[in-house]
Every structure is written in C-alpha cells, then in structure tokens.
Amino acid sequence: MTNTTELKGDWNQMKGKLKQKFAILTDDDLLFAEGKKDEMLGKIQVKVGKTKAEFDKIISEL
User: Fold this and answer.
1) 1: Cβ–Cβ under 8 A, 6 or more apart, which residues?
2) Cα(30)–Cα(40) distance, rounded to whole angstroms?
3) By Cβ atoms counted within 10 A, which residue in 4, 13, 18, 52 is the most buried?
4) Structure pTM?
C-alpha cells in the first residue's frame, strides 16, 4: 500500500479509476480526509466486497 503522501497526491486520479472500476462508489465514499485514510479505505473495501489484501492490490495497480 502506498503511503499517505503518495495516496493524497494521486488521489484525484485514483478516485476516477476506482469509480470506473466500481460504479457503486460515490464521491462521499472517496472523500479523502487527513488522518482518516485507513477508515476511508476500509469503508470502500467493505462496499466493493473485497478483502483488505485484494483491495490493497487493486489500489497498487491503479
């Protein structure tokens, strides 16, 4: 998994790719809040029905 700085810097691009891959995700699901990265990623992981390892792999491949 990328670190917070890398994730925050690329987040707008990653958001678009995640929304294309998982149409169920909304802008609210993908709202990046400082200090809440793990919470946000956990909620997205649950919503798309992937394990943490599966979702980490998806994020790293974007």
Assistant:
1) 56, 59, 60
2) 7
3) 18
4) 0.67
